Structures are given as structure tokens and as C-alpha cells.
């Protein structure tokens, strides 16, 4: 019975909710990277809601807490884990910006490309670096959704990053300790 | 990053409490929250919090008054006050009353992380002082450094000795020996572990780019510099900067680096504001820096400034007893990352790996195992899965007979003891091959 349940859950897999225009090859590569990292099937669904009500005119940014709640309520029912992929600048009330956030040990997370672009920091754009940062943020947030916390290992994807160069320093893989914890979390589903 | 540090958030705004709660939970802290000073004081009386993050403006009792009361019965708690306005008076008053620091809402994520890491480091130093008194030191986060040979135990002992200090370290060793892993181990076991370790691969950057990377730049410093940007020294504040391939930096950069190491201050490219940064420097090189000093290509004063402690990592050929444990480690690592069942290695393959000399060191062994798992049969790593050239196992001290025996054995194993194919590759007839097999008493593992 347990095997059957696991199989059904695995079939539901991880869903990426895509807001805005992402290149197909970026999404294809992201699906591949997430499937490799978590061993679960990944599917895409479009974000069909109007994003404007989530815009805070005073901060000129989008409310990440409310967007996380929206993705959780409207898009997460049929997946084991769901991540909203955004193109807009995200904030939470207490912080000036975030790259992404997730429900710790929950079902949902969100991530944004906005602050990952070199151009935000006066450096020439680089699509390869941008994608590398994005996949790390998405895998990091999924790690939280699977119950992982931040890690001291400098190259582990669960190392916290508050600026983009921080993200560049780590790899897109989990360290041994986080990998073991992730495996045990995956096995318990 | 699981820690035993506990944080209490006190703020009357629910969204602030929730945001901070989630942020700290992801950092591995134990977190609780209170909506006002009264609730906070009740919780503090019954629980023991290490850090209290309190809003300065709350209905009823304000954060400053609450801070004074907390200090009456918990003098060791670190109190950080939050304010929506950068009010110098209230901040000064809070600091005068013994608050650890203050922060203005909304916070820059980097500022918040920095503040909490500072507080965590203070708490950690307190407990480390206790540990030091008892002389108990165990290294953490060294799972990727595999080996129990005498040579590696010596290296780890040196890591343990040097980690707690802020001394500069030069890590030397051939390519692929794991210099960066040793740098990570030093950082992860130092009091600086709560702060970033920033790596710069000096060899990959031109002089101008390296200067901008290390020191940052001001808006307009050069074409395309549209915003101010922090440099790596600034990012490493409180933590460690790791300069890989230090021998490749130009004489001009050597002068700049020496100046920064002496003053711990610098200016961004195109700027004139002096920036201070408290970093520890670790360098790595596969070159002989002493020789470079002698021939004038590396500054002697910089060498002595960097080389306070030297950790030399042995090449893999000098610690061959670590090969079996390294092989098991890499098999487990790659089977897990490729979501495959754990496989084993056959005796002949392991023996060949133990005979090989590894010019590319541990990295070469790792690549071989990864490749063997990819191309292998999914059950075990076999000799034929290893990308070893026949002459790569030849020892220059072997006699001609020994060379011939090894070469024939390797060829036979490569072709699964298919005599016809092996004879064809060796360019001898089958009868001669049988004679050689008898002469050298070779036997197939299947027999």
C-alpha cells in the first residue's frame, strides 16, 4: 500500500508555475536540473492570475507573502511541491527584497529572476550566469519545502545567499549532509 | 546550519513577525514570537532566549522600556532593536542601555544576516571559550575530505590548529589535491563560519577585472558601471576570502593586496571613500612561491604576510592507502546524485586504481569513478570501465618482463580474456599469447 501511495505521489511530482515570459530552453533546462536534483517528475503550468493586485505602489515591488499564498491556494493542490517562477521584484514587509521564499517543510515556494540579473548591479548581462543563479534559487527553495534548513558548507546549495555573488559562490548541488536529509525526506513522502 | 541559538521576535505587526519567523526558521534557529512587550516578558521569564529582536515602537510598553526590564533578569541575552525610522536619539538610547545593535525597517537582507551572524558569533565565542577550556575540538563539515592516511591526518590536525585563529594561510599542493576543500574546512571550523567565505579564482581574471572584483567599483568608474558594486573583500567582512591560484596575480595587484592586508582598508575602483573590512585571507597555489620570491616574480613582503601558516596537501600517490576509501566515497556520491542503486568495485579494478600514479590527483580519481558509473553495467565498477591507458600503470622501476606481464594482463582484462582479440591488439599470434600467459602465470578472474 505504501509503495502504491508513493507511486501516485511521484506521478504528481513537482510543478513549476510560470509567470511572465521565460525562454523555452530555460524552462527545459530547469526541469532537467530539478528532476536530477530531486528525482521527481517536473511539470509546468502557466500563472493565469493578474499579478497587478500584488504590486505595492509605495515600494514599487510585488508582495512575496501574498504571492506565495496565492500559488499555494490556487496551484499547489495537485503536486507534491509547487514553485512559482516570477520575473518581478519581490519583497516581504520586513526586507527590502528577496530572491525567493518557501514554506519550510510545506508544499509551496516562489523564486524570481528579477534581482539575479547582472544588469541590476551595473555589470554586463550574462545569460549563462543568470540561469545558473536561478536554478540555484529554485533548488534552494525546493530544499526548504522538503524541510531543509540553511547550511554552513560554502558550496552547498542550501547555503544562504543575500546577494547574487553569494549565490555564485555555491554549487547547485546539496552537500552530503543535506543530501542525506533530503533523501530521508523524499523517502518519508 | 542547525544551531541551538534561540530567537524571540517582538513586534505588534503580524506580517513582520511571520516574515522574520520564517526567515530564522530557514536559518535553523529556534524561534518564537510575541505581539507585545507584556507577552514577550512572560515568554522570556519562562524560556531562555539568546537573541531578542524587538520593535522600538509598540503600544503599551515600548521596546526601550522592555529592554531595560529584560536586562534585569537576563543580562546575557542579546537585544537588537528594530525601528521604522532612522531615529538617532532612540538608537543611541538603546545602545546606551546595552542593546547589541539596532536596525531600521525594512531591512536589507544582507544587513539582517550580518547582524544576526554577529550576534550568533558572540554567543558562539562564549561557548567556544568554554570548549577551549576543556580542550575539546572536533572538526565539522569535513565530510568531503576523505582519507585516514597519516598524511591526511596531519593535514586535518593542521586545519584544526589553525581554524580558531585569524592567521593568513597558504595551502600548497598539486592540482586536484583538494586545496579549496581544505580552505572550506578552515572557514567552517573558525569563529568566522557564520559569515561568508568568498572565493576568487585569480587565474581566471585579467588584472583590471580582478581589481574590480576584489575592491568593487563606484557608479561611473568605467563604461558600463551603472551602479555601485561591492568587491569581494567587502563581501568577506567578518568571514574569509579565499584567493585561489595566488601565484598568477600581477606585480601591480601584489602591491595592492599587500596594502589591503596591512591596513584592512581599501577604496572601490573609481571611489575615494575608505572602506574597512575584517576578513581572514587564505590563499592556494600549486606553484613554489618561495622559488618565485627568489626569481623576483612574487614579492617577498607579500609572501611573508600571506605565509603565516602553510598547509601542504600531499599528492594522491603519496597517500595511496586512502584510495579504497576514496573510491567507496565517490561511488556513493555519484550513485546517489545519479539516483542509482549503490554499486561495488571488483578487485582487479581496485588493484589497478591502487597501482596508478594520478598526475591529476583526487580530482582525476573522482572523474574516473564518475565516468565508470556512467558507462558501467550498473552493478559494479569493472577494470574495463576505467579510462586508464595501458602505460599509465607502468612503473619506471619495472623490468622488461614485468612490463610485458602488466601490459598483457591489462590487455586481456580489457577484452574480457578474449584471446583472439587480445592477441590481435598485442600483434602476436594466439599460440604466443598462450605461452606468455603460462610464462607469467596469468589467470582470468572467471577461472
Automatic annotation (TrEMBL), chain A:
Keywords noted in UniProt: Hydrolase, Metal-binding, Metalloprotease, Protease, Zinc
GO molecular function, one term: metallopeptidase activity
GO biological process, one term: proteolysis
Domain of life: Bacteria
Protein name: Archaemetzincin
Cofactor: Zn(2+)
InterPro entries with a match to the protein in the record: MetalloPept_cat_dom_sf, Pept_M54_archaemetzincn, Pept_M54_archaemetzncn_arc/bac
Residue ranges crossing the lipid bilayer per the database entry: none
UniProtKB/TrEMBL annotation, chain B:
UniProt modified residues of type 4-aspartylphosphate: 55
Keywords: ATP-binding, DNA-binding, Nucleotide-binding, Phosphoprotein, Transcription, Transcription regulation, Two-component regulatory system
Residue ranges occupied by any Sigma-54 factor interaction domain in the UniProt entry: 145-374
The keyword Transcription regulation is assigned to this record: yes
GO biological process: phosphorelay signal transduction system; regulation of DNA-templated transcription
SUPFAM superfamilies: CheY-like, Homeodomain-like, P-loop containing nucleoside triphosphate hydrolases
Pfam families: AAA_lid_14, HTH_8, Response_reg, Sigma54_activat
Protein name: Fis family transcriptional regulator
